[in-house]
Amino acid sequence: MMSMIAALSPGAIFFYLLAGVVVASAAGVALAPNILYSAFALLGTLGGVAGLYMYMGADFIGIAQLLIYVGGILVLILFAVLLTNRIGEMNITNKSAGLLVGGPAAVGVMGMLVKMSLGTPWPLTEPSAAPTTARIGDAFLKEWLMPFEVASLILLMALVGAMVIARRAAKERERRPIVKMEITPGPPAAGRGGSR
Predict the structure, then answer these.
(1) Least crowded by CB within 10 Å, which of 1, 35, 37, 53?
(2) Is residue 47 one of the residues assigned to a domain?
(3) Backbone angles phi, psi at 169, to 5 degrees
(4) Closest Cα to residue 36, out of 87, 84, 64, 78?
(5) Alpha-carbon distance 83 to 75, whole Å?
(6) Cα 92 vs. chain centroid, distance in angstroms?
(7) CA distance 112 to 118
(8) CA distance 16 to 4
């Protein structure tokens, strides 16, 4: 065992440390009793995955992971959890339901994955130090130009459609007549307020 650890390069040790952070944080997301702790563990998971992307030479995907998931979506989740945690006197928890059924299934799947990863002859490649953003930009403007433009047009149509639907709903609300009800006082109820 010690000879295997001594044979590892510093890059491999760094990779296994990042992978351990990702796996431990993912377990924290699934098993933490408080949903706020789960959200903070998700920060470690997403940050570790971004580190793995950057270690493997995919700098664009790693930075996009940090900006979009950690910087945007996770902050949104944290704000949602913090702002809605005590609404309606209800404490939101993250109890692991079905742990007796899911635990053995998770152990079985993990065993299969470990057996597969140890039994597969993986090709050894060194990550390239060249940035990938120039190659991605060239690909978007040359061979992938048409799919990129079609995807942008579909997103633009979805945005315009959402605006039309929202505007139509607002106009219908304005056109709806406001019904004014006049309340006329009736005779006093028998036995109340009458003279004796």
Answers:
(1) 1
(2) yes
(3) -65, -40
(4) 78
(5) 12
(6) 18
(7) 10
(8) 13
Angle between helices 35-55 and 74-84 (to 10 degrees): 180
| Residue 110 shares a structural domain with residue 14 | yes
Q: Count of CB atoms within 10 A of residue 30's CB?
A: 14
Please report where in the chains the tokens 């057996």 appear, as a residue. Answer: 115
Based on the fold, state whether residues 93 and 169 are members of the same structural domain: no
CA distance 38 to 42: 6
pLDDT at 21: 94
From the list 32, 39, 23, 28, the residue with the least C-alpha distance to 95 is: 32
Look at the chain and report how many structural domains it folds into: 2
What integer pLDDT is reported at residue 49 of this predicted model?
94
- Given a contact cutoff of 8 angstroms between Cβ atoms, the answer to whether 46 and 78 are in contact is no
Q: What pLDDT score does 88 carry?
A: 52
Question: Does residue 66 belong to any structural domain of this protein?
Answer: yes
**Are the C-beta atoms of residues 34 and 94 closer than 8 Å to each other?**
yes
Q: Are 19 and 102 found together in one domain?
A: yes
CA atoms within 13 A on the CB side of 191: 0
Q: Is the pLDDT of residue 87 over 60?
A: no
